[in-house]
Input
Amino acid sequence: MAQITKVEAQVEIKSSTEKLYGFFKNQMGRLVQMFPQNFKSCEILGGGDAITTGTIMSWKYDLGNGPISVKVKAEAIDEEKSIAFVVFDGDLLKLYNTFNTKIHIFKASNGSAQAKWSIEFDRANQNAPNPNENLDLAIKIFKGVDAYLLQ
Output
């Protein structure tokens, strides 16, 4: 039986939730130019830069241990400012049977704007690590995009 594990990273942001969510929904491919040391390419298959439910994206990125290639599908986009992705092809599936990510931009109860990146995964074997490096990259992305949007 599959053992689904969930890990999360959350950061406070200074830009508006609308701006940050809009970036991820409409300009995510720009991450390649903003973080060239990590992102090598992004191809949004079937159209422009906007992400809609069903959008397929092909990514090549590097967490410091060599290139990783994945294809993801935007599985759900909702008005609560969240986007859920499913990895359906690529290098991550050598380590994980399933690998799903979710970006959620929201106002916390204290009124601060927050960005959360969640990963749900099922290890392909007991030696597969927690995807902590992916979470570290997520924090770097949130902080970098937030700073960019504040310029």
